[in-house]
């Protein structure tokens, strides 16, 4: 069985992944355009426009409120990004809840709860990996858009919020890998025959 230290570390790393994804989720930096002293930061939910140190922010709902087929198409595409990023964030949250539950069971249980611990571990790891994969999909789609825009707008800067969200997804898939590795180690340990040397006559 994995030690308390190992599972607690997994919960801590999952927490880091969740924080990174939340930060990237809310910041207006999925697409950043700098023109001289002016800058425009576009996030999943808002756009921030700055002239020198004066900045204004509007929501994406306000942006896509304008009528027209092109705006409707852009709105639909952006809503897809929002849905995918939200699903990834929900997955990261569920993962940390499941891994925390696993840690609590290990710490407080006084009976054999191996099956419950393994179930929570597998669910937590699977949810973490699923969250990461969805995160990679939305990051990849957005990165593709940015690369295409760079041919037209050479003033595009590093999308800091997108990078932060991608780091969170990377950490999430790492957490899932660690949990599956620990489950494998525990299974091998449980299958190793135990010899009681005290009962062997000398």
TrEMBL record:
Alphabetized UniProt keyword annotations:
Membrane, Transmembrane, Transmembrane helix
* TM spans (from-to): 7-33, 85-108, 120-147, 159-182
Q: What name does UniProt use for this protein? A: Uncharacterized protein
Species source reads Potamilus streckersoni
Q: Highest lineage ranks of the organism?
A: Eukaryota, Metazoa, Spiralia, Lophotrochozoa, Mollusca
